[in-house]
Design goal:
By secondary structure, the protein is mainly alpha-helical. It is built from 5 helices and 2 strands; from the N terminus they run αβαααβα.
Length: 121
């Protein structure tokens, strides 16, 4: 249970960092506060658990042809879908380019944070 809470909190912090990094280039990726990030992390987890596997199966031929690069598009779409499910909470992504860049930055930041959280245990 402790690992779950740490991962959830780490993902929320990664969302805040991603939003701040992408605000530098003003691309349209916004997370208002930590509470919003915590709600968005739950929704992202649900989307990744339910919808993303279906998308990966359906897009397997394209992913194979692009040597796995289409996975970035699937990740961006999943992130954009999560933002559509939480519009009134302050998590907003304006367009597919913001979702694509957001998913790339979020993957890097989240992986780094989760690596350090795993070494704490």
């Amino acid at each position: 249970m402790r690992q779950f809470v740490l991962t959830w909190f780490g993902t929320a912090v990664a969302l805040l960092i991603t939003a701040n990094v992408l605000q530098i280039i003003n691309i349209g990726f916004r997370v208002d506060n930590l509470g919003t990030a915590l709600i968005a992390a739950v929704v992202i987890g649900i989307v990744n658990a339910i919808i993303r596997p279906i998308l990966k199966v359906l897009a397997f031929p394209i992913t194979l042809l692009t040597f796995g690069l289409f996975t970035f598009v699937i990740n961006g779409f999943s992130l954009w879908l999560a933002s559509l499910l939480t519009p009134s909470y302050g998590f907003r992504i304006d367009g597919p380019l913001a979702a694509l860049f957001g998913s790339i930055v979020l993957a890097i930041v989240s992986s780094t944070i989760n690596y350090f959280l795993r070494t704490v245990d």
